[in-house]
Amino acid sequence: MSDTYVRTANPWRNWAGNVTARPARVASPASVDELAGVLRGASEDGLTVKPVGTGHSFTATAATDGVLIRPDLLTGIRGVDREAMTVTVGAGTPLKRLNTALAREGLSLTNMGDIMEQTVAGATSTGTHGTGRDSASVSAQIRALELVTADGTVLRCSADEHPDVFAAARVGLGALGVISAVTFAVEPVFLLTAREEPMAFDRVTADFDQLVAENEHFEFYWFPHTGNCNTKRNNRSAGPAAPPGRVSGWIEDELLSNGIFQVACSVGRAVPRAVPPLARISSRALSARTYTDIPYKVFTSPRRVRFVEMEYALPREAAVAALRELKAMVERSPLRISFPVEVRTAPADDMALSTASGRESAYIAVHMYRGTPYQAYFTAVERIMTGYEGRPHWGKIHTRDSGYLAGVYPRFGEFTAVRDRLDPDRLFANDYLRRVLGD
Questions:
Q1: Long-range contacts: 317-324, Cβ < 8 Å, 24+?
Q2: Rounded to an integer, what distance in angstroms lies between the CA atom of residue 124 and that of residue 35?
Q3: In this structure, are strands 20-21 and 142-148 parallel, antiparallel, or unpaired?
Q4: Tens-place pLDDT, residues 409-436
């Protein structure tokens, strides 16, 4: 066995601890050539292959009993093209490392999600997104991909080179090959002013379309068992930079959002009847604040309280009706929900399996504290979301299969045709992909 492989008897677990895999072996290729060799060797040995990032998906999209590929050595910035305004990075580069490296170069991504622990390949392959009126997901900012396919071929794709593969592989679910490098569009670093403000549920839902239209990035959190929300509006600013004060920032982002919230979730898990009063306290704990900083310091937040999550993308015009239905369901049920419900938006994009493919979208995400039974809540939420032709986030818990998904993704067949061509023998298959893509 080559030095690329490490024998392992240790199971792999995801961040939330709800998925475990026991691979036959683990590979950490240090180059594209080594990666191609791993794929050829696995195929010869009759083993399937799955690349894994930092395990921030809640589904088993990366689980395998074959060869698990860790991209730890396929990292770093390969090059910055200031004329084309692109950056090319190794697939295993964590978003936080990319963000800080870009900031040193005076550059930034246009939009991003609210955590930055994921690798660039893991984040884009599952459709990670933030919120935006005009700017879309992390995958939508990709300008080119380097993909190693099942037979070890290194395939480079873009809008001009293998465009059919490019349309599929930017949100590729690990089904088409192993991404070795990603080229992103970037822009000169800019400032965002964040305005966080408590707001009543009835007002947020009544004014939702206006709030989305008036802000470049709008999102809000509703606290179940209350009529309270916390809103966040991010808009570009001429400056000057005015980051949160060290003490006030620590109080909001660490003490309240992580420390005290962790305690409240633990108490709620042990004593469910305590959840509603704790929710009322939590929903009033965060105060209004405004601050200005570079993008990744505004878009992202530390997430130290572990949870499981389900998220659905709906046609944006259905968001308020679905959210009101969700609130009514919680109020008439015995459920006790300690985590807020998150609502974000995205413009339509042109990627085959993007959750915003071909339609302007709103995202409704529900969470439960890790270790708390979540099935009853998630099942009830999923019933509501599928009533609006919802599309589940590929990296978050859901029960949909290929029959349902083919009905809500007009380009589903386009994706599976590319898969049939690039991986006819299903080197990259696992149980999750069999369920969501068919076999």
A1: 318/362, 318/388, 319/208, 319/343, 319/345, 319/362, 319/364, 320/205, 320/208, 321/388, 322/364, 322/384, 322/385, 322/387, 322/388, 322/390, 323/205, 323/222, 323/364, 324/205
A2: 19
A3: unpaired
A4: 999 999 999 999 999 999 999 999 999 9
Return the number of other C-beta atoms located less than 10 Å from residue 360's C-beta: 15
What is the CB neighbour count within 10 angstroms for residue 270? 9
CA distance 350 to 359: 9
Q: Which amino acid is at 224?
A: P
What is the DSSP secondary structure assignment for residue 129, as one 8-state letter? -
Helix (H, G, I), strand (E, B) or coil at 51: strand
In contact, 316 and 362? CB cutoff 8 Å:
yes
- What does the pLDDT look like over 333-389, one tens digit per residue? 999 999 899 999 999 999 999 999 999 999 999 999 988 999 999 999 999 999 999
Contact 253, 291 (CB under 8 A): no
Which amino acid, one-letter code, is at 37? G
Angle at 380 between CA 379 and CA 385, to 5 degrees: 95
Given a contact cutoff of 8 angstroms between Cβ atoms, the answer to whether 381 and 310 are in contact is: yes
CA distance 73 to 93: 9
CA distance 169 to 172: 4
Q: Output phi, psi for 112, to 5 deg.
A: -160, 170
* Nearest of 402, 365, 368, 398 to residue 383 by alpha carbon: 398
Strands (E), 263-327: 289-293, 307-315
